[in-house]
Amino acid sequence: MKAVVELGGKQYLIEPGTIFLADKIPADKGQTWTTDRVLMILDGDDVVLGRPYVEDGKITFTVLDQTKRSKVIVQKFRPKKGYLRTRGHRQHASQLQVEIIEGGGKHDERAAEEKPAEEKKKKAAKKPAQKKAAEEKAEKPVAEKAEKKKAEKAKAPKKTAKKTESKKAKDTKKAKETRKTTDKKDKAAKPKKKKSE
Q1: How far apart are CA 11 and CA 3, in angstroms?
Q2: Is residue 71 part of a domain?
Q3: Which domain holds residue 141?
Q4: Are residues 6 and 98 in the same domain?
């Protein structure tokens, strides 16, 4: 028999006799401790899922030791400021051994309270007919809207193309005008050559 249990916000897959390290539990060394936070129980082919926890599910542990986990180094550093802080941290933990897993024989009552099969069959028979009617209603407006959009797109020329053409036209006009003015200025500035006979 296996189970998934939640301890300290973490999930562990365990079975009787398993020894593992979990976050600190409020019990002394050698004491037994039980929890009802069982998420799932696996017993051969039978699987009992909790919603979120299995009803009547209990797991009994024996606390083998209260220890600390390995050291984690924490460093803070700010470049170009002369700031460096180094600190170590060891998280408290409990070494546990699984003794008993209870509640595997009972199934979740909410799952057993499901509606009879006849009602399910009636609903299943109604659903295809309702879906067909809804699809037919939905297809007509969608198809019409799509056709209208295509027709509008085909009629209306692209706006972006006009903008780029008009910009180019403006640029060429400005360039021609500046050339004309510079040509006039150049002619005015140059003295006329006398014709020699």
Answers
A1: 10
A2: yes
A3: 117-157
A4: yes
Q: For residues 43 and 51, is the Cβ–Cβ distance under 8 A?
A: no
Q: Is residue 165 in a domain? A: no
Shared-domain flag, residues 16 and 101: yes
Asked if 42 contacts 54 with a C-beta cutoff of 8 angstroms, the reply is no
What pLDDT score does 93 carry?
97
Residues 24, 62: one domain?
A: yes
Give percent of the chain above pLDDT 70.
64
Say yes or no: 62 and 11 in one domain: yes
* pLDDT at residue 114, rounded to an integer: 45
Inside any domain, residue 162 = no
* pLDDT exceeds 80 at position 67: yes
Q: How many domains does the chain have?
A: 2
Assess whether the previous peptide bond of 16 is cis (omega < 30° from 0): no
Q: What is the pLDDT of residues 108-119, one digit of tens each?
A: 333 334 445 555
Tokens of 177: 């005008």
Are residues 122 and 52 part of one domain?
no
Q: What is the mean pLDDT of the chain?
A: 80
